[in-house]
Description:
The protein folds into 2 domains: 3-196, Nucleotide cyclase, GGDEF domain (Alpha-Beta Plaits); 210-350, START domain (Alpha-D-Glucose-1,6-Bisphosphate, Chain A, domain 4), CATH 3.30.530. Helices cover 34% and strands 35% of the residues. The chain is built from 10 helices and 16 strands. It has helices at residues 20-39, 65-89, 95-98, 128-135, 151-157, 185-196, 220-228, 233-236, 320-324, 326-350; strands at residues 3-12, 46-51, 54-59, 104-113, 115-119, 122-126, 146-150, 165-172, 175-183, 210-216, 240-244, 256-261, 265-271, 279-285, 291-304, 307-318. The strands form 3 sheets. The protein has a 7-stranded mixed beta sheet with strand order 2-3-1-4-7-9-8, with helices on both faces. Strands 10-16-15-14-13-12-11 form a 7-stranded antiparallel beta sheet.
Amino acid sequence: xxxxxxxxxxxxxxxxxxxxxxxxxxxxxxxxxxxxxxxxxxxxxxxxxxxxxxxxxxxxxxxxxxxxxxxxxxxxxxxxxxxxxxxxxxxxxxxxxxxxxxxxxxxxxxxxxxxxxxxxxxxxxxxxxxxxxxxxxxxxxxxxxxxxxxxxxxxxxxxxxxxxxxxxxxxxxxxxxxxxxxxxxxxxxxxxxxxxxxxxxxxxxxxxxxxxxxxxxxxxxxxxxxxxxxxxxxxxxxxxxxxxxxxxxxxxxxxxxxxxxxxxxxxxxxxxxxxxxxxxxxxxxxxxxxxxxxxxxxxxxxxxxxxxxxxxxxxxxxxxxxxxxxxxxxxxxxxxxxxxxxxxxxxxxxxxx
Length: 353
């Protein structure tokens, strides 16, 4: 009978969220991470299926111990590099986004028979060996990030396994299963330390050409959602017919989107600025007429549960022609943004979805 090495990376760490934004964002975050794990595959692994927050894969080309170790470390490094970078680039403060760095990754590896089941056009591995690796998702390992070898994998690689491996066992459906595990938490710690030594990517802009301040009778998180969720842009920016963006990605620093207007379009990139005590959202473009660049940053300052002070800072770098008509440009921009903010206020106050 043909043999296979079953390989299963499993993500954990998200708590149960009830807010619709948090649930939607957690789905996007997990999807991105699963794609990264697939792109980090160094072995000839075939994907059987995506099982919630886990990937179930196998290979019939049995790798060496060193190749399995390389596979787990490369996936774990890519995983935590992404979550660390996402935390530096995020603009959303929902529960899912701000706890992304809490996500953890473990690996289960099993060696056994390869048999298939076919239902209509779907064919996939099936049998006791598939059941065994899934049972071991529930185990007694106290470590958050690890690689687990079943007894059969231990028999394959025992001559290569050093004293860093620990043995455990558990009873599963009256059957005792022995397994071995190795702590992998050091990889995340190294990546986090490296990230802390580097500077975050934030927009450094000075001297706004125009400042508009308003107070909204609305919750700060509601306002921030309507600002930063591109799918809501048309609800408060009536100059925009539609917004073209990647609906499978969460808006963050560097995200690009295209605002389709009645005449032409404007391509924007998401920016922000450092702040410890308030929320900041902004965008920049080089497509605005009579300017070399146009940027804005909106500061949200919480004054109460349903009271938020808004400070809009607009930055303009004029072309030669733009310098001569600067007053007209500022007047036009001021009117457009006062209209946008009024619609944003009404939208946030009424919580229209």
